[in-house]
Design goal:
heterodimer, A: mainly beta, 7-stranded mixed sheet, about 0% helix, B: mainly beta, 12 strands, globular
């Protein structure tokens, strides 16, 4: 099993450009999550999904959109990138039952200039 | 408000010495508790978890943690640190009626020879 994979691993964008980050999991997990990690702030939840076709806002959703068209994939989109979105982005997935331990992908380092 | 606190931002420890990382939480319900480790440039890996039963839990890589309900703490310990333990460690907390986790800001561990 590959677990949780993310593409791309690195990306540099100019302000105003758009991009999509792809997360894929092969564990048949129902729940999926997108986080951003910034120094000294831990992980902050951007959006999450409790199943195919569903999405919900997390703690810091502004400037991001998501889609879950297939159970195994969770896409994070930036429509108009801003320097404040420079961060490391992590995708995670979990089973539906407690204790909801999450399995993480390797991350995507995004720089917006 | 629910919160997770890791009081130590950075800890330096000598190789072979013991290590203890602190985690305190503020939750009204019975928590699920996790410790994750993040090596440089990598994703988060689950070290151990607690959701019921014995309050002393064993994890991978020789780590253990103890849940103390009276102190709202879940401290991580390792008796003898190896250079490969240099990483960032995150405490995370969930509750039974919510599949989302809250993460602490992290503790960076440096191991000196």
């Amino acid at each position: 099993n590959a677990g949780v994979t993310q593409t791309p691993k690195f990306r540099v964008l100019k302000t105003g450009q758009s991009m999509t980050l792809l997360c894929a999991q092969d564990m048949n997990h129902e729940y999926m999550y997108w986080y951003r990690q910034d120094p000294g702030m831990g992980l902050r939840l951007i959006h999450y999904s409790v199943g195919e076709g569903t999405t919900a806002k997390g703690e810091v959703p502004d400037g991001y959109n998501v889609s879950r068209l297939k159970k195994q994939n969770f896409l994070l989109g930036l429509e108009s990138a801003a320097p404040s979105q420079t961060s490391v982005y992590f995708c995670a997935s979990s089973w539906t039952g407690p204790p909801y331990e999450q399995y993480f992908g390797p991350g995507t380092r995004l720089t917006v200039t | 408000a629910q919160s997770v606190t890791q009081p130590d931002i950075h800890i330096t420890v000598s190789e072979g010495a013991s290590l203890e990382l602190r985690c305190n939480y503020s939750y009204g319900a019975t928590p699920y508790l996790f410790w994750y480790v993040q090596s440089p440039g990598q994703g988060l890996q689950l070290l151990l978890k607690y959701f019921s039963g014995d309050t002393l839990v064993q994890g991978i890589k020789g780590f253990e943690a103890e849940f103390k309900r009276s102190q709202s703490s879940f401290n991580l310990r390792k008796p003898s640190v190896h250079w490969s333990d240099a990483a960032e460690y995150f405490c995370a907390v969930g509750v039974s009626n919510d599949y989302k986790l809250s993460f602490g800001a992290g503790t960076t561990v440096t191991v000196r020879a």
